[in-house]
Amino acid sequence: MHDELLEKHLSLVIEANKTTNITRISSWEDGMLLHVKDSLLGLDALNACPAGRYADIGTGAGYPGIPLAIKSGRETLLVDSVAKKVQILDGFISELGLQNASTYAGRIEDLGRERPGQFTAITARALSKISILLELASPLLQRGGRLICYKARVEQEELDHARVVAKQVGMELVDDKTFELGENCRRILSYEKVAKPKLKLPRRTGLAQKKPL
Ligand SMILES: C[S@@+](CC[C@H](N)C(=O)[O-])C[C@H]1O[C@@H](n2cnc3c(N)ncnc32)[C@H](O)[C@@H]1O
């Protein structure tokens, strides 16, 4: 049943992509590997988060958010700033009959202002550097909640800077695993909210990405 839903989502994505650009992946084989299998590599990390609401920030076509919503059963919010993508996601949710998923059309920073501390798990794939993800996720998370970052190869410089920013925004690296994914690799890093941020978050909308900490 779950696998059927995962496949149905992928076929809806491939179909929608013919008229609106929501992903650069267009073949079934690539989609099964680089969207479905890849998304599920973070399932253990998600299951390690405290019970509660989960958000996939910068979800695009719903990866990894929709496969993780299907497999975990968590209450899931799919967040994207592009209204057209969110409209397509709403169609996916209704076609798939997902009772536990909903969408937010807007910027992550605005969600952070509207629903501070309301999530126990956040995922982000192909969105930003880790330091930026930490800044965006911290205000959304309750203490003990986790940000799960899907990365490929990560330069030491990015990790070092993430460590500095994590301290500023009250987060700490708690898990770091690397998986094989076809010819590529996927590294999944989880950061836990351990303290109040040392600065007021979210900063003005756009600053996290335009003027990173
Ligand atoms: C490269 S896509 C990745 C999509 C998906 N996570 C994946 O891995 O296939 C990044 C997505 O993040 C969204 N995005 C970027 N910045 C955002 C922000 N500040 N708030 C909400 N969505 C954002 C974009 O609209 C885009 O759909």
What's the gist of this structure?
S-adenosyl-L-methionine binds at residues 58, 63, 108-109, 125. Helices cover 41% and strands 25% of the residues.
Structure overview:
- Helices cover 41% and strands 25% of the residues.
- The protein is an alpha/beta fold and 213 residues long.
- It has a single domain, classed as Vaccinia Virus protein VP39 (Rossmann fold, 3-Layer(aba) Sandwich), CATH 3.40.50.
- The protein has a seven-stranded mixed sheet, sandwiched between helices.
- A hairpin with a 2-residue loop joins strand 6 (171-181) and strand 7.
- The longest helix has 16 residues, at 2-17.
- The radius of gyration is 16 Å and the shape is globular.
- S-adenosylmethionine binds next to strand 2.
- S-adenosylmethionine (SAM) is lined by residues 23, 58-61, 63, 79-82, 85, 107-108, 125-127.
- One of its GO terms (molecular function) is rRNA (guanine-N7-)-methyltransferase activity.
- Specifically methylates the N7 position of a guanine in 16S rRNA.
- It is found in: Cytoplasm.
**Helix and strand succession?**
HHHEHEHEHEHEHEEH
Give me the CATH superfamily: Vaccinia Virus protein VP39
Which strand order spans the largest sheet, edge to edge or round the barrel? 3-2-1-4-5-7-6
Q: How many individual β-strands? A: 7
- Could you describe the largest sheet, including whether it forms a barrel? 7 strands, mixed
The low-confidence parts are: none
**Average pLDDT number:** 97
Looking at CATH, which topology would you report? Rossmann fold
Q: What is the number of independent domains?
A: 1
CATH architecture annotation name: 3-Layer(aba) Sandwich
What radius of gyration results from the CA coordinates?
A: 16 Å
CATH domain class: Alpha Beta
How far apart are the termini?
44 Å
- Helix segment tally: 9
Overall form = globular
Strand content: 15-25%
What are the bound molecules?
S-adenosylmethionine
Relative helix content: 40-55%
**Structural class computed from helices and strand pairing:** alpha/beta
Subcellular location: Cytoplasm
Organism: Senegalimassilia faecalis
Family: Belongs to the methyltransferase superfamily. RNA methyltransferase RsmG family.
Protein name: Ribosomal RNA small subunit methyltransferase G
